[in-house]
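Support case: user asked for a sample of complex input and structure output to validate their parser. Sending the pair below.
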Amino acid sequence: MGLKPLLEMRFPVQGNDFIQAGEASSRIKRTLQQIGMESSLVRRAAIASYEAEMNIVIHAYHGELVLTIWPNLIEIVAADVGPGISDVALAMQEGYSTAPESVRQMGFGAGMGLPNMQKCADELLVETKVGEGTRVVIKINL
Amino acid sequence: MVPFFHSVRLDADKCKGCTNCIKHCPTEAIRVRAGKAHILEDRCVDCGVCIRVCPNHAKVVHTDPLTRCKEFAYNVALPAPALFGQFAELSEPGAVLDALLGLGFDEVFEVPLAADLVSQAMRRFLQERGPGPWISATCPAVVRLIQVRFPELIPNLITLESPMEVAGAIARQQAIRSTGLSADRIGVWFITPCPAKVTAIHQPEALAQSSVTGAIAVSQIYGDILKLLPRAGSARRRLQASGLGLGWGRAGGENVAVGIANHLAVDGIHNVIDLLEELEMGRLQDVSFLECQACTGGCVGGALTLENPFIARVRLRKLAAQLPQVCSLDLAAMEEEWGDVFSIKGEIVPRPMTPLATDMYSAIAKMERLEIIERRLPGLDCGACGAPNCRALAEDIVRGRAEEKDCVIRMREMWYTRPDMEKAKGAKP
């Protein structure tokens, strides 16, 4: 892309930190609202980034969310250091989850993370390496 | 765009410019400038929190005095369910109706009775429309909140009018029929616990004109009613409403009255905001009916009530238990007689807060500046600058409504780092 990003913001996310979980996606939502993005775009970006953030909290050791606004799209990259996903196709299925029972009891890990991201995104890329980590790229066209 | 009507106003003489209202406002709609509070019109939802927290009673609500009845040939009072919970010695809710007639109203139409009808209409709506989640549109502050902060949830609103509006529409038609007067000679007055209802009367969301003429505050009329209560003795009038209709005055009462499984009730505007955030993020899939009340305790907690909301809530529950638990009126028969007074006919439109700039490029440039300024501010969120927190000040600065030196901490820093101060420090032996 020869274009220059208009805005870039980074938010660190800590694995297993359920107290702060959701703050990064809240800030992404507020930022997009204040910029004056259409409310439907804001909602899609907020849900996708929340799911990405929760995936890091539930499954990974640590990671970060990066919001980049390009002239033609909103891009959210969630990159983590973690166990990686051994079968991406399976993980994309609604209801499939590897979340531990303790996390499910908190109401998370219903196996809707990646499917929800897919629903909200115009383009979703998942790069993963077992034992190293995962990088999810969510693109929403403006 | 039509300027927003707000029932909540400032009495500038009483305002001391303290930080109570700015810190509590759920939509960050108040700033103190030049020692006085100012309401940002595009953000205010008339919830009334500022009225409750102001120690100087400088926030006032624009309501109608009882004397306005003189302008009309025939006057009908619409007592809100919450009114019945205000009186300690009330053994018979009908006595309140007697007292209102004693005050000079020609007729009384119970809003609890309209609530009974709206409960039936809601039950039918929910059965017809499927799982939802559906949000009740009967709390006007919540409707405005959704328009301002959650425009994506507007399609989830139940498009049924509030009991007040339904009561007004039926009462007005009944009065025309019984007196033969023209509509403009009939005054229909809501006895309101709530500033947002006043706004809903003067600037209804989806109606060209409300069926209600004006609103008289519960707190204004309380003393007058109280004086007439003992004299009324055993009530001549009996409440026609069921206990379920009366129960609408307290949080959760609407849920009970509508009687749909998978319901949820939330009260207190900050709690409502948290829950709507969850809903907007798609995290409330198993709830089909949501009752949201801006005031803690529901309408009995309205800013224009006098009794402690928890006491009023218990009292209302006891009164409701004495009444029949089934509504005496049939929805279909009422629709036949008075027409469709239940559906919201117009459109509820989004009212998003003003963005930093109208075009995306300058808005993003301002956002970057905002972030830089926010990092320079102390992060104490003290409110001394007149904005509720440091981020709001940073936002005001990039909007050109404030300056960095409005922050007392930054001001002190700037003072000590002036070139001449630095020189003076260096000159010390």
